């Protein structure tokens, strides 16, 4: 944490930036806040502890709304940071304080931009309050339950445990406490850095102008929309929040039904099936496509199905739509009417105790005032170019307006939003940057985990066909990994899809113990353009799970003998 | 660090499926060795000089020595897919395990002859591989004509394999609950996912089960009741359960020769595992076998069992260990007679233990049971049972036994008679241990636990005195079981 000192010194922009730390609540965190999740960046936080301590003259200003005069005068005081700040309240306003907005804000501060973030609900957005974060708490519980219930596995390790049980409320509290804790960490980190948190719904009034709440108008040189998404509920489905629920409700874990149908078998559905079956529920998947887990590499999906679905108390209906779901009432169970996805003919009606709608997420862009700047959403998503610049209905760029995260629909992942936000800030501060979305990893936190980066094998083969190159696949098993065997968790597969001619990584897919943590070696390699022939020479500590990837890279057969070295070797 | 070559590693991928290459199914001598699949020349009649096209047949491979028929679990590739050498193409369920089958040729999967969920005899074509796109149509036509009549217009060389009459799609149509499809007709029986799985496992017809769950739904408990299973603990079966369920299939074995079907009865074709059992049982008829029984008091063994049970030792392990120790002293009982002309003394003592799993019968093998200590043996046994349950047993883990143990004691069976498995010299049938009034040599009465064991042996190599001596040693070990723990 204390490394932050050198950081601030090396960054000249830090000094002028400090002058708009005025509203930050003193005292600043002398205690380092340990914070890292969903792609949040630690160094930005560490940076705060030094820069903020120089702000003894700052004063606290919590009365954000209705204090425009104060902004203006202060803006005059501290305009030294950038000339544009003279005529605007802020250099950058971010609408939406989810993970994307947070990532953008921290980076903006680091780059010396005077930044405000607008939040109409709670800081942290979906990820922290209703998504990744609380679900990880539930999955942590389900993972342990699974271990404790697997008598055979325990005995193989020489452990003896009597019957495992759980207290539903205790589990729910754990998830809730985690969300609260992360939320306050997030809020503190922004406050500590001097990001203004403006409370109220944000809407774009016009170019470089944002309305916050009812009648506060704030101007900024640039605006980032980061309003995120909400659970998507297809029509015909009646959500009552008790027996027919979305992930928002499920994360509160108000009940553990005996039998729950999960509509949609993507990440969200899969993770919840892991939680519910560990807690004793039986699960029925309803999937519109012909196979479960669409979107995963088919081979990984198949293996995952053998491990995560077939041996558990789960059955499934594929190739069907749930056209009508009625909550339980008057002593009747939840009913789900299924039709064939292709012929549209009614197939059957399921009767279950509860239904979780996990059919994806819809962008939350209503009421953003997009009409004021002539932007038309596409299925709710805000159209953007590859640099996240918003495109209006005439196909022209809207100057000074960007949109990141779920609201633009490019890649609906918390850390993707954050990466997009950082990319935008890079552009705003004079460095052109285009984010390589193929380098963004994704993970599904089942037991064991699934992770991936880049293309799936069919995608890679299609691309190869189109562009005329060769594709090869290498695989390694967790069964050959010492650490995995020590944990008695040899089930798993890592798969590398690459170009044998030049050693470029096209995609990596992992299913196995801690797969979500293992993927980053591959995603970093893709992001930095590292070739397999160079990775083969990298050293991994033994015995670690990371050797699964080591083996994977080593088993790839690259024809190019020498890669184009990314960096010159340095003798020490 | 195991660091196998990539080609080897690439064979480990799918969890319960082992990878194996298309075997030359026509050479029964080496059924387990991957080799190229048979290249068949396709000649157009009337034009004998025409050069053959490059359409290759994908055969049902022989994945184990006992396999005569395989069921297609799933086609990994679909028609029109490009295949490259070494890629997995199809998952086949053999009598013991699911295995990925990979191709040894590049090409295009032109036609699938045997669809998912259906079975084909070993050696029968299950798909066609074309070398170029032009040949796809030709291959399809060929597939269509082959599909019409009975398939496998097999090459003359296909001596042994097609002897089992090719029983293609037609049989499978009326076959039992096919693949993992939640095929619920319009019928209004609601069963939970777990209940459905159990029903499939135990071959229970859900529509005939009265549901007692909420809204009248069929629960796992209802299925267990219908299948006559005493509800065990809900989660993953503990080893004890496995051992207990073990001999369920054994009576099935005994009643193998079935009577002609009565009117109104349902005919359910054998699964691959059942076919393998049936074949083995018939083979045993060619072996002149005889039986010797022996009473053994088990008070000391029972006491020992109580002592080591908390350490995870199972009765199966105790009996296997005792048998192995006795066999070490009587190698002839561990021998086998393969050709009717010679003894084959086995260098290892591998105890196969009959287990009923998922409605089938399998004999996981405790290798070198005489050398491993009780705890290792128990642990090994748990692993085997788990693997058997997951259909992951490797061939050498179920067919390398030199002596078999079958225990029906937990059902209260006091004595029974086992059938000798092919390739082994003897099998031991263990009955229940029961309190019995025993008069000792001084004429004093006492009540002791007594169990009857009955060994069936191949009289070509094992004679009465051999077996009697073996049993005497075995009973001494059981009655003084301290040596078991050493």
From TrEMBL, chain A:
Annotated S-S bridges: 127-132
Record domain FAD/NAD(P)-binding: where: 90-421
Keyword field contains Transport: no
Matching InterPro entries: Class-I_Pyr_Nuc-Dis_Oxidored (IPR050151), FAD/NAD-bd_sf (IPR036188), FAD/NAD-binding_dom (IPR023753), FAD/NAD-linked_Rdtase_dimer_sf (IPR016156), Pyr_nuc-diS_OxRdtase (IPR001100), Pyr_nucl-diS_OxRdtase_dimer (IPR004099), Pyr_OxRdtase_I_AS (IPR012999)
UniProt record, GO biological process: 2-oxoglutarate metabolic process; response to arsenic-containing substance
Enzyme class at the top of the EC tree: oxidoreductase
Reactions catalysed according to its record: N(6)-[(R)-dihydrolipoyl]-L-lysyl-[protein] + NAD(+) = N(6)-[(R)-lipoyl]-L-lysyl-[protein] + NADH + H(+)
One Gene Ontology cellular component annotation held by this UniProt entry: mitochondrion
Keywords: Chloroplast, Disulfide bond, FAD, Flavoprotein, NAD, Nucleotide-binding, Oxidoreductase, Plastid, Redox-active center, Transit peptide
Gene Ontology molecular function: dihydrolipoyl dehydrogenase (NADH) activity; flavin adenine dinucleotide binding
Co-factor binding details: Binds 1 FAD per subunit.
Residues annotated to bind NAD(+): 264-271, 287, 360
Residues holding FAD: 136, 202, 227-229, 406, 412-415
PANTHER family in UniProt: DIHYDROLIPOYL DEHYDROGENASE, MITOCHONDRIAL (PTHR22912:SF151), DISULFIDE OXIDOREDUCTASE (PTHR22912)
Subunit-level organization: Homodimer. Part of the plastidial pyruvate dehydrogenase complex (PDC) containing multiple copies of three enzymatic components: pyruvate dehydrogenase (E1), dihydrolipoamide acetyltransferase (E2) and lipoamide dehydrogenase (E3).
Protein name: dihydrolipoyl dehydrogenase
Organism in which the protein naturally occurs: Linum trigynum
Taxonomic lineage from the root: Eukaryota, Viridiplantae, Streptophyta, Embryophyta, Tracheophyta
UniProtKB/TrEMBL annotation, chain B:
Domain Lipoyl-binding: residue ranges: 55-133
Positions with biased composition (Low complexity): 142-164
Organism: Linum trigynum
Chain residue ranges for the region called Disordered: 140-203
EC number: 2.3.1.-
GO MF, one example: dihydrolipoyllysine-residue acetyltransferase activity
Residue intervals of the Peripheral subunit-binding (PSBD) domain: 190-227
Record keywords: Acyltransferase, Lipoyl, Transferase, Transit peptide
Co-factor(s): (R)-lipoate
Any Gene Ontology biological process: pyruvate decarboxylation to acetyl-CoA
Protein name: Dihydrolipoamide acetyltransferase component of pyruvate dehydrogenase complex
GO cellular component: chloroplast envelope; chloroplast thylakoid; pyruvate dehydrogenase complex
CDD domains: lipoyl_domain
Enzyme superclass (EC): transferase
Source taxon at top rank: Eukaryota
